[in-house]
Amino acid sequence: MDIKKDILWRVYLSFVFVVIVAAAIIGKGFYIQQVQGKYWRSMSDSLHQRIADIDSERGTIYSEDGQMLSTSVPQFDIYMDFRVEPLHVNNGYLFREHIDSLSYYMADLFKDQSADDYKSIFAQAYKNNEGYFLLKKKISFREYQKIQNFPLFKLGRYKSGMIAVEKSIRLNPYKSLAYRTIGLARDNNKVGLEYSYDSVLRGINGKQLVRTIAGGVGVPLDADTYEIEPENGKDIVSTIDVFIQEVAENALQKMMVKNEAEYGTAIVLEVKTGKVKAIANLGRGKDGNYYENYNYAISPSEPGSTFKLATMLALLEDKKVGLNNMVNISGGTWKVAGQTVYDSENHGSSDVTVQHAFELSSNVAMAKMAVQHYSGNPMQFINHLKNMGMDNVTGIDLSGEGRPLIYKPGHKLWGPSTIPWMAFGYNLLVSPLQTANLYNAVANNGKMMKPYLVSAIKEEGVLLREIQPKVVNEKICSDQTLAALKACLEGVCLHGTATTLFKGTPYKVAGKTGTALIANGKKGYDDKIYQSSFAGYFPADNPQYTCIVVIKNKPHAAVFYGAAVAGPVFKEIADRLYSASVKQAPIAKVASKPDSNVYVYKGYKQDVARVAKKLKLPFVDSSLFVDEWATISHAPAAGLLKSSKVDTKSMPSLIGLGYKDLIYICESAGLKVNAQGRGKVAAQSIEAGAPIVKGQQIQITLN
Predict the structure, then answer these.
(1) How many domains does the chain have?
(2) d(C-alpha 332, C-alpha 642), whole Å
(3) pLDDT for 378-421, tens place per residue?
(4) Do the strands 235-238 and 61-62 form a parallel or antiparallel pair, or are they unpaired?
(5) Which structural domain range is residue 8 located in?
(6) DSSP 8-state symbol, 412
């Protein structure tokens, strides 16, 4: 045999053998990776155990009237382990016995697939011997409760293979209501109260031994055993009143939409305490809709004419002027330091009293008085602003409060025009909340309170800490100055720029309009963007609430004056709050007297007829419908049963109704009832025919 051929034969044979073995290895690798890969990965995961954090339950944020504003709710991901031994005993009898009914119940609950589709999915997963097969993600607690009672699943985790992985999500039941103030509770994106009180709300996480399943999900080895139990977070009670917040947001949004404004804010403070009862922030999105996207209430800007209250306080406190002193407003224009001060409109007369100049919101008058009395000693004016707290943050328990900007002599931007422009709210930056706090101090007889948003911290309903109102300045000015400031603010609403707005209002209002021209970046003031504002308190003779509304309008807006844009929002808020809680209408006292043979009874028709029949009281039914309100009254021969109209759009007459019927009618109309006595209605605080305000309180006297 040729030696060369013999060698080549051996080489070729070896080469073919190597190729076959290599192909087999590659094929086996491909099969393991592509066909069996999911199974082996899940097996690998199932062997991996670790200590994982167990999230504590985050505390709830409540409104002052006990409504949930932000709370945590459980959510579940449902997996199924088709490898558990009971599912394969007796040739899979347990699985085959329940697959049809389980598929039916799943389809009936979720309504996303048919029962046949679910059966096909279960059958395929069972055939593939899936380890941790995902059935459903993010189901609610109620859905989870129902699933636990489904066929097969009710046998428990170790027989059915059903695994529930619980997660906690944050929910705002009132959705957008005070959304920016309440805040978000995401891992790296907390704002508002959720951020400010995060250490109180979040609690302390626990530790638990888990086994990692497919997708990196950790399943507890024993759901009832913790290495370290989590400590749940505390609850906080905010000062927000849901009704007042809703009123403020609705009033603000209506004007924002009407005027196509860029953004706006409305704040309501409780005068005596400084509690923030409502804080609405709305900004226009790219889609044209409005969202709580930024906290404009605590963001500084040039305040405009609402700042004139601070200027008046300084002038009056230093006895530089009196309300009856005369000031020349120069027809609405005045040149100072090479620049011209303009009034928003020509007021005609040249000499007016200081009070009337304030009521007319004259920039010229304020600039003239500031230059005359403070240009030689500007720090005297600045020190008054410091005493009012205008140079510092309010310290509200809310993250992100912007610092005000008030220039002082020596600053590179200080010049001869600084003082006159500061006098009417330019050349400085303060937030709407700071302005509101100043007005609140005037309403509170000179006592400045610290505004705050959280009044209590609780744990499972037990009070741990109560936050009391805090006085930051016992007296911002003398009583004489205070009386003059109140007269000026009331005068604005009686004889000044807000006269038309509050004409015919059944309660006194003290406030100030403001209209500021705002710069638009590099374009400067060419776009004619105005910020409209109104700040004040009500009722002026017994202040309960302070409110400020600030709205930034679109460029070249047709309507932009404070009295026409911010003023109507303030008035709507004031009207609603006055009707609902401030107003206490007197109830006419009615002498009690027993029913006689001459009778009149009102009530639900079926009830009235049933009682009359039971008492064997003859009557003639002249009503038209079965389901309606009726009156039965004495008649010569027999009682007369006739229809009695009850209109819940306006206040119906309740006279003669029993307690059950009056409660039904009033609560259906959204009224809060305070009834005294027993028997039938003898008097009501809201007159019949008056408009009904949801949440309004009605006083009822029974005879």
Answers:
(1) 4
(2) 67
(3) 999 999 999 999 999 999 999 889 999 999 999 999 999 999 99
(4) parallel
(5) 3-35
(6) T
